[in-house]
């Protein structure tokens, strides 16, 4: 009985002890701060899929953007020494001509955005000035370049008729040039050049070169300028051409050229608006037929130079359509390669250290050698066969053009993009192009790690706060720094 009572007393004592309280879960610091208990665990399957897709795409975009900026900075550093060279107060900076046109099936904004994003940074770094010839429709660049060449031929003394020389008024560019001559401002002695964006603009550029140098100064008799439209022999072409003296002014001219046209008056009847639109849509037809026979039969003017201004053709990848979305995404994630290629070509134009001729493998049938007969010779030169290098430049871009380019239409609009490129030997042999020299290319590669964008985060922070090793004392800091008298 005693043993049973002892055991019962022990059990009651154990039952009488208070139950142990569970230990508080979570971090005690978070609990004291009033924060909830965070339980780290893997997210669900759906969240893993979402985070992996968005994270991969974001990383690809940031990686491409970083290397795109580095590639642009590399070519900007290569030409930045030109901007630091002193320029006489009465000398104009070096000026080039830029040709922009709307991609097939799209507006001119796509070409402008491409210029501002890839081309303009290198031109500004090299302190370049430029004129712009824009084309909103097919044929505007051709008309603008041809009229520019005809204007140059008139300035050099070539006259087609007496009426043309007497009735042609002076335009704004002539007045500005006369004012500069009076003040004593001279043009730059550097090599001038042309910059063309896209295959579609390049085809119009080549057509305009042939029309300007091989065509007549006055329109042929079968071409009559329409009413209420500018005369092509006296007024500037339909293409939007701007001439400014600073890159900032050119920037505003490219962005705000649409503001030159007055807004439509809502009170005008619909018929008058349609009539005004039809007048604006009129385009100056070419002065010479774009065929090899017409080109060969034309005589070169006496003002024709031995070599034409060098040119640079830049790619303008542009594809439309919903089914081409994968191609557009791939190009969006690989813009660093486009920036590298474009920056290299623009830097070659700015440096202008290497100018090469276009290669060809043509054969001629002529009564005189095309390389030796004078420009005024009437010897017939016929191109039997040939494969000019100019004809294959950026030919892969034609596969991205809108299908409306290849469709035959009943209207009489000019179709340059659909027709093959025709090059006359006397014009094609005088064309030149800019190339990047081996020394400049190696210097750009060797200086790649020296640009500020290639420094690490810690090095950039030290430079920002003034902790770099080879730091020079500023002038205003001499009173705060102890100078050793020894």
β-strand amount: 5-15%
Low-confidence stretches: 226-247, 256-263, 363-385
Helix content: 40-55%
Give the tally of β-strands: 9
**Basic shape:** elongated
> Could you give the order of the helices and strands?
HHHEHEHHHEHEHHHEHHEEEHEHH
Quickly count the helices: 16
- For the record, give the distance between the C-alpha atoms at the N and C termini, rounded to a whole number: 106 Å
The profile of the biggest β sheet is:
5 strands, mixed
Cross-sheet strand order for the largest sheet:
4-2-1-3-5
Mean pLDDT: 77
Q: Please state the CA-atom Rg, rounded to the nearest Å.
A: 34 Å
Assign the structural class, choosing from mainly alpha, mainly beta, alpha/beta, alpha+beta, or little secondary structure: alpha/beta
Fold blueprint:
Layout: H1 2-16, H2 28-32, H3 45-83, E1 95-101, H4 109-125, E2 129-135, H5 140-155, H6 162-167, H7 172-183, E3 194-197, H8 199-214, E4 240-243, H9 247-255, H10 270-280, H11 292-297, E5 311-314, H12 325-332, H13 335-351, E6 355-357, E7 363-366, E8 381-385, H14 425-428, E9 432-434, H15 438-446, H16 457-465
Overview of the structural elements:
This protein has 486 residues and is an alpha/beta fold. The protein contains 16 helices and nine strands. The strands form three sheets. The chain has a five-stranded mixed beta sheet with strand order 4-2-1-3-5, sandwiched between helices. A two-stranded antiparallel sheet has the order 6-9. It has a two-stranded antiparallel ribbon with strand order 7-8. Helix 4 (109-125) crosses helix 13 (335-351) and helix 5 runs parallel beside helix 8 (199-214). The radius of gyration is 34 Å and the shape is elongated.
